[in-house]
């Protein structure tokens, strides 16, 4: 198991930097400190290795999404927090960055990385609409699309600057956005 773990972490770094097409299995084996024979024993093909990286990275991201799906007193803040938490995860986890990149490049049958969180964001926003906390002029789907653009954009930025503090930037963006997405407070006389 130790060799498999080293291979997955080395592969995540390689796929994260080079993408699927540019990734080298020789570099993965060298970086993991194992022979090509050991690599192909655990992962017979590049595709099998990439699939394993996606599975591990998606499992990490799913934990963040599942936590956000819990009922919250403020659904709009929950959407902002979920996107910030996912960006923090992208920032600190080479496995999640690689999984996001691989899914986007390979165009998987499930629709890529967004499948992990788009439905959850939609459900949270629907809860906001039901509570009349979402501005009636804004469709939940529009905010889902905004979230998609923010997260995919952050993933691209973090590819070139993995140590960047995109979570703080995202928090500032959401602070501005939430001002326009919240329903106006009822006038109380």
TrEMBL record:
Residues 1-61 form the HTH tetR-type domain. Transmembrane segments: none annotated. It comes from the Bacteria. InterPro entries: DNA-bd_HTH_TetR-type_CS, Homeodomain-like_sf, HTH-type_TetR-like_transc_reg, HTH_TetR, Tet_transcr_reg_TetR-rel_C_sf. GO terms for molecular function: DNA-binding transcription factor activity; transcription cis-regulatory region binding. The keyword Transcription regulation applies. The keyword Cell cycle does not apply. Signal peptide: none annotated. PROSITE patterns: HTH_TETR_1, HTH_TETR_2. Residues 24-43 bind DNA. Keywords: DNA-binding, Transcription, Transcription regulation. This is Transcriptional regulator, TetR family. It comes from Actinopolyspora xinjiangensis. The lineage of its organism: Bacteria, Bacillati, Actinomycetota, Actinomycetes, Actinopolysporales.
């Amino acid at each position: 198991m130790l060799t498999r773990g080293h291979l997955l972490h080395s592969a995540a770094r390689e796929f994260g930097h080079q993408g699927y097409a540019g990734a080298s299995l020789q570099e993965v084996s060298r970086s993991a400190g194992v022979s090509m024979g050991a690599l192909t024993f655990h992962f017979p093909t590049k595709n099998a290795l990439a699939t394993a990286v996606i599975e591990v990275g998606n499992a990490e991201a799913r934990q963040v999404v599942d936590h956000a799906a819990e009922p919250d007193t403020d659904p709009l803040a929950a959407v902002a927090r979920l996107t910030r938490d996912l960006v923090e995860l992208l920032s600190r986890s080479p496995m999640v960055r690689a999984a996001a990149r691989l899914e986007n490049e390979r165009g998987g049958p499930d629709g890529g990385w967004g499948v992990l969180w788009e439905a959850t964001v939609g459900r949270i926003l629907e809860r906001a609409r039901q509570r009349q906390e979402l501005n009636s002029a804004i469709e939940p789907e529009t905010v889902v699309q905004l979230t998609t653009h923010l997260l995919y954009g952050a993933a691209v930025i973090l590819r070139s600057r993995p140590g960047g503090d995109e979570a703080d930037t995202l928090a500032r963006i959401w602070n501005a956005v939430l001002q326009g997405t919240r329903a106006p407070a009822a006038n109380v006389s």
